[in-house]
Amino acid sequence: MEPHGYRNFYGTKLIPKLTMQEKLKRSHKTPLESAVEAKVRGNKYFKAREYLKAIECYKKALELSGTDSSLQSGTQNLASTERATFFHNLAAAYEKMEAPKDVIRECSLCLEISPKYIKALSKRAKAYKNIGELEKALNDITAASVLEELGNAENLQLSESITRELSEMKAKEKYASKTTRQSPSKHFIKTYFESFTFNIFDIQESEDASCLDPSRGFGKAKHLFESGEYDEVEAACSYEIDRVGKQSPYYVNALLVRGTFRMLSGASKLALEDLEKVIEDPRASPLQKSNAFIKRGSLNMQNQENFKAMADFEQSVVVADESVDAHHHRGQLFLLIDDMDRCIEEFTKCIKLEPNFEQPVIQMCYAKYKVAATQRDIIKANDALEQFKEVLKKFPKSSDGHAMYAQALADSGQPSESLAMFDKAISLCPENAANYVHKGMLLLQLKGDYNAAVDLIKESLEKDPRNDFSYEMLGTIEIKRGDYVAATKAFEKAIEMARFEVEMGRLYFLYLSSQAWKYVKDHYGVDVSSILAKTMGP
């Protein structure tokens, strides 16, 4: 009998095509062993940048491993672990070929086998980012970062990048769709106007105050402001501007006031239009122009137009070098950006012009303390704290002064004294919501007392229900407690209260982060709050 096989017309013996199982049987290798060999060949091609050949090898490895009898048991064994690697390596090759949809498919197959395969999560996140599915990308990269206990700098950087891009996109959409403006509290408006020595409601010497009609136009706006009825001030100014027109002797005054109220309510574009008209109007006084430059600079800072902002603050001094407000607000800007030398220089000029203006005097003390603390100069730091005491003797009813002193005391490691100063600040101005929040966060830092912190923040919201800072800090506390649902709700409220697009973007960053951490907790059973507690404390 003819042996296995047969002969063709020419008498040549033909061997029938063997099945994969027959080939493996003859090679005396298990399917998994042959699959691993295929993977090794694929890795060599991958390193040589021959990605198509690498893909063929990885596919072969998957085909071979799929016949391994140990895989059929359904248990998480060596074969299934290797298959997860094969899928991941295949995704890596597709990634090199810039085929994001193929990367997503292969990573998803890998993660079906091994849900915590970190490299597959990070690769799929990048692929999702490349096709614009940012929320899916954020979930994946957050999972990868948390599973590594926030220890992978590259993944953390990618997570931040995706969160920032998505938050900016959502903030732009939210701001564009916002139909109603969010006016700040009466206390906020009052405090803001107190940060200027120049009263924009004062009329110029050449104008007759007796002509002001308190029932309409700018006269009404002035009367409403002095009565603390801020909601209708803008409308009264609009009457003066639109109905009376440029011939009105109060036209510039009305523009400056309306621009200010529009700025405070978040109507940035409308505010800029009014402020620019003041700057360009030849009838505007130097102090009016300086005031408009300061406010336009603030808007540019809010919109992250830093170079324009710096130019505006510079011009505020150019048009009125003797303006106390110009030097004061320039000093605040430099304090904000940690340019302490220029900050102290501006505050010094301001105080020289007006020694009894409490805000720059107090802020100067704080700036000096910050410089000493940064330099770790204990003697200078103590001197700055002593200066604080003397300044508060001069301004004993300054709530902001006691609050800033409280912050300096907390930084210097004097918690009891700091809490006492916050209590004093609150007693001097109970309607200032920020001081309740600062005290609450200090209690959390010192004692880990979440309940006391939350109670104080809730009290701040009773004083000012529109305070986005209170909601932001409440969300931050809930994240530390691991309650991501409560955190998300708090950030949602803060976003609704926010008046500027940039501010919304920052809040959306926190909101999206809390959502992603909830996703990781629900799907992977890992709570980022416990990791944060190890690295950051309460």
Task: Report on the architecture of this protein.
Residues 1-15 and 72-76 have low confidence and may be disordered. This protein is elongated. The chain has a two-stranded antiparallel ribbon with strand order 1-2. By secondary structure, the chain is mainly α. The protein contains 27 helices and two strands. The longest helix has 25 residues, at 153-177. The chain has helices at residues 20-27, 31-47, 51-65, 78-96, 100-113, 118-130, 134-147, 153-177, 186-194, 217-226, 233-244, 251-264, 268-280, 286-302, 306-318, 324-336, 340-353, 358-374, 378-394, 399-411, 415-428, 433-447, 450-463, 468-481, 484-497, 501-524, 528-536, and strands at residues 6-7, 13-14. Helix 7 (134-147) crosses helix 26 (501-524), helix 18 (358-374) runs parallel beside helix 20 (399-411) and helix 20 packs antiparallel against helix 21. Helices cover 73% and strands 1% of the residues.
Task: Provide a quick synopsis of the model.
With 538 residues, the chain is mainly alpha-helical. Helices cover 73% and strands 1% of the residues.
Number of strands: 2
Widest sheet: strand order? Answer: 1-2
End-to-end CA span: 86 Å
Q: Which range does the strand content fall in?
A: under 5%
Q: How many H/I helices?
A: 27
Order of SSEs: EEHHHHHHHHHHHHHHHHHHHHHHHHHHH
What share of residues is helical? Answer: over 70%
Average predicted confidence as pLDDT: 90
Largest sheet report:
2 strands, antiparallel
Question: C-alpha Rg, in Å?
Answer: 33 Å
* Uncertain regions spanning at least 5 consecutive residues: 1-15, 72-76
